[in-house]
Write a structure and sequence with these properties.
7 strands, 33% helix, 6 helices, seven-stranded mixed sheet, Glutaredoxin
Length: 181
């Protein structure tokens, strides 16, 4: 009897620790930012370190096509929309590098919290860190915010607030870059 109770308790513990079905499989790493094209020439400066500390990027030098998503692990809307970005990133056009995806983690409590969030959600694209909220001057006071930047470095689309479904996000990518997903 005691052995049966232990087996039942152990089984319950295992199932209660299983991952949330809304979260994708853990990719287990924090990607670097070296694939991001920063060849636009500008006098403007807004520098952010890559979350993996590999490089620092001046946001104003980003050359697209690139989708930039500002997020925070503390942000409910960010958590809600992240599965849509993961689905987007798994599309062939992103895997081939035709369009890039870049995250900007805003005002995180710690880098460990940011890295844990990335690993838990399987966000395998590069991320910058805005630990002191400097991005607010450019993007506004809240997250999530998503920008679409073309090959000239021009912003060709914006979304303030969370996407409610993946069709909304995919449609905006298609309109911004003239692609079919």
């Amino acid at each position: 009897m005691r052995r049966t109770v232990l087996i039942v308790v152990f089984s319950l513990l295992l199932t209660s620790c299983s991952s949330n079905s809304n979260q994708p499989f853990n990719q287990g790493f924090v990607p670097n930012c070296e694939e991001i094209d920063t060849s636009i020439i500008t006098k403007n400066e807004l520098n952010f370190k890559c979350l993996d500390n590999s490089i620092e990027i001046n946001f104003h030098t980003l050359k697209g096509p690139i989708v930039v998503n500002l997020w925070g692990s503390w942000c409910e809307g960010c958590r809600d929309e992240m599965p849509y970005f993961i689905d987007l990133y798994q599309r062939a056009i992103f895997k081939s590098g035709e369009i890039k995806l870049l995250g900007v983690d805003v005002e995180e409590s710690s880098m460990d919290a940011a890295k844990s969030f990335i690993k838990a959600y399987g966000m395998s694209w590069p991320h910058l860190v805005d630990s002191d909220g400097r991005s607010k001057g450019l993007f506004g006071p809240g997250v999530p915010v998503t920008w679409f930047i073309d090959e000239r470095g021009e912003v060709v689309g914006k979304k303030i607030g969370a996407y409610l479904n993946k069709e909304q996000l995919f449609s905006q990518v298609e309109n911004a870059f003239g692609v079919k997903l």
